[in-house]
């Protein structure tokens, strides 16, 4: 039975798709329309009580939270496709560290920019210029630290592409696209080279291809 | 060489201490005074560029982000002390899922309550009643989902204590103590039993004992 990915039009589920492509795992997608409130249907809430995406089903095993799903597939198919975890416990520690930095430092201000500049006025979000300004300032500081880090190693956790890099793809793609702030990436030499590298991976291009029939704003 | 934990007076470093006690790993603590701005010293920023706590040094290996550190020690000492990861890949997936729920759903509103009710007016935080009200409502919804989950299994990821439960200890301890909202836990039967269980573990009592000489507000 192939893996089912509930999403897939939105950014967080794309983390899972790109991981599955890297790991050469077959999957099918189940579209859940957030604007139509399908994530609040009782059947969906049985899978994911918080009403968030993505969720996966692997046989009769159900899992949610995108970064937990990434770790699950990277571990389950450790010796298939791209190694995304790191080879030593120390490397794995750094992958987890930068994956946490993505979740705790990079994502919150970027998510605010996405909500207020891309999704407003959908989902009842009222555009707030103060939030936009503060979020851009916070994200800029994070990107300055990334610039320093990426001047010392090709990828965030070292000289290998990992879950830590992969997890940045969907929301950064919004940042340089519909959010209209590509300069935040392009003006930083090493961040820009890193972005060009990871966003041109065949796995990411394939993910975009799979999702192009869905419009997250429709 | 014993493990060094930079912190340790604050909540996030206590996650690391309780993990090290559970894993029977020897450590020493290095106090970093946030109110005195020691986390912005150039030497500290070399260890942790974001100026956050905790950081650990294990020989010449440095790691930051509390949940990444938990995973590192739980994996490195897999067969020593309490197993905190789960025995199968499926159980590990659920541990990671609930650890992400703690980070993404439980922690943000709880952290707001801690900042506005416990740390205001320290760190220049201005108490905001609207933030307090909204955060309590959000946390209550999360705790309702926990109540349902903990009516079905003794711990969050299943019938075993894991990193997912452990990660809740320091901030929930603030919630039932100085934040003054113990009723949010006590009024929910299964959450209350779970809290009594995990907060009476010798590892947590030892962590509190180690930290009692430090006052995070001084």
UniProtKB/TrEMBL annotation, chains A, B:
Xref: InterPro entries: Glutathione-S-Trfase_C-like (IPR010987), Glutathione-S-Trfase_C_sf (IPR036282), Glutathione_S-Trfase (IPR040079), Glutathione_S-Trfase_N (IPR004045), GST_C (IPR004046), GST_Phi_C (IPR034347), Thioredoxin-like_sf (IPR036249)
CDD domains for the chain: GST_C_Phi (cd03187), GST_N_Phi (cd03053)
Molecular function in Gene Ontology: glutathione binding; glutathione transferase activity
Boundaries of every GST C-terminal domain copy: 88-217
A Pfam family annotated for this UniProt entry: GST_N
GO cellular component annotations of the record: cytoplasm
Keyword entries, A-Z: Transferase
A GO BP annotation: glutathione metabolic process
UniProt key word DNA repair: no
Keyword ATP-binding appears in the UniProt entry: no
EC number: 2.5.1.18
Domain annotation GST N-terminal: ranges: 1-81
Catalytic activity: RX + glutathione = an S-substituted glutathione + a halide anion + H(+)
Entry similarity comment: Belongs to the GST superfamily. Phi family.
PANTHER family: GLUTATHIONE S-TRANSFERASE RHO, GLUTATHIONE TRANSFERASE
Name of the featured protein: glutathione transferase
């Amino acid at each position: 039975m192939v893996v089912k990915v509930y999403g897939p039009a939105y950014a967080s589920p794309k983390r899972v798709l790109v991981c599955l492509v890297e790991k050469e795992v077959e999957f099918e997608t189940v579209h859940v329309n957030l604007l139509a409130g399908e994530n609040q249907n009782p059947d969906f809430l049985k899978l994911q009580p918080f009403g968030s995406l993505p969720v996966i089903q692997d046989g009769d095993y159900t899992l949610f939270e995108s970064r937990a799903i990434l770790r699950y597939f990277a571990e389950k198919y450790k010796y298939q496709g791209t190694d995304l975890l790191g080879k030593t416990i120390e490397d794995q520690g750094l992958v987890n560290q930068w994956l946490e930095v993505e979740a705790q430092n990079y994502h919150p201000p970027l998510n605010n920019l996405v909500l207020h500049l891309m999704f407003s006025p959908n989902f009842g979000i009222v555009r707030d210029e103060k939030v936009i300004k503060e979020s851009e300032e916070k994200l800029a500081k994070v990107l300055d630290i990334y610039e320093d880090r990426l001047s010392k190693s090709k990828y965030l956790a070292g000289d290998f592409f990992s879950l830590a890099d992969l997890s940045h793809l969907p929301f950064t793609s919004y940042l340089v696209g519909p959010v209209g702030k590509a300069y935040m990436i392009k003006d930083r030499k090493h961040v820009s080279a890193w972005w060009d590298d990871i966003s041109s991976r065949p796995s990411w291009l394939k993910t975009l291809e799979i999702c192009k029939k869905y419009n997250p704003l429709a």
